[in-house]
Amino acid sequence: MHFVTAKGILSSTNGMNLYRGCSHGCIYCDSRSKCYHMDHAFEDIEVKENALDLLEYALRHKKKKCMIGTGSMTDPYIPLEMERQTVRRALELIYKYGFGFTVITKSNNILRDLDLLQKINERTKCVVQMTLTTYDENLCRKLEPHVSTTRERFTVLKKLRDVGIPSVVWLSPILPFINDTEENISGLLNMCIEAEVYGIICFGMGLTLREGNREYFYRHLDLLFPGLKEKYIKSFGNQYMIESPNGRPLMKLFTDKCRENGIIHNNNMIFQYLQTFEEKDSAEQFNLWNLPL
Fold this sequence. Notes:
The structure is a single chain. The strands form three sheets. The protein has a six-stranded parallel β-sheet with strand order 2-5-6-7-8-9, sandwiched between helices. It has a three-stranded mixed β-sheet with strand order 1-4-3, with no helix packed on it. A two-stranded antiparallel sheet has the order 10-11. By secondary structure, the protein is of the alpha/beta class. The protein has twelve helices and eleven strands. Mean pLDDT is 95; it is low at 283-293. 43% of the residues lie in helices and 14% in strands. Helix 3 (86-96) packs parallel to helix 4 (114-123), helix 6 (150-163) runs parallel beside helix 7 (182-195) and helix 7 runs parallel beside helix 10.
């Protein structure tokens, strides 16, 4: 861990990264790519020591309320967060100033903040985005070694369902010759159906590899699946987009199951939903909050 003083905290699309780097150890992580210009070891978490001051200033001076997002580059619920509580304090500011919130995570540590997520969702809108890649728990522990397993994330999705917080699942990445099977996709989709997720984001059955994350991925293929790296090189060369040879039937399975169960699976529609700020009717809130016990 090391500290930096940031110049700003919110992007032009109102996203923020309170940390840079990650300790989850997912073997396929795109955020390791050199194009992101991270000038420190990926596991050496960068902490923006003035992030909360910057966030409060930005929220106080915004002319219009909007959704605030986090988690696109770094999972905000890394173990370090449980010690520092920067995300929790950011949520308190987001609630204080009446903004909406959405987060992408793979960690059940998010349940620590369920109270604040509920309060934001009661006033405006809060959407939790959860990544699911691997139905088999043993395989999950190989691909995503230092983060909550799929079953633990499934428990989070069901708790969100029970308290009325909408969820979106990222079905990504799907690794050729590893988890690109009908059994894997069906298992994950059945979880999404039971948890009543709002939507599922899927860019196809595959992954992306480029300088930085390709080398890390291949090192772990050598350790976990001897001989598979050579199969990747022979099949895909140095392609950026790596598509599963099973992609077509798996995408049909995906779209059919989503349609049958009323799950939105149009990526553009989901992103529009995530970006749309929705303020609950104040009169309705007043009536709800003042019902006799």
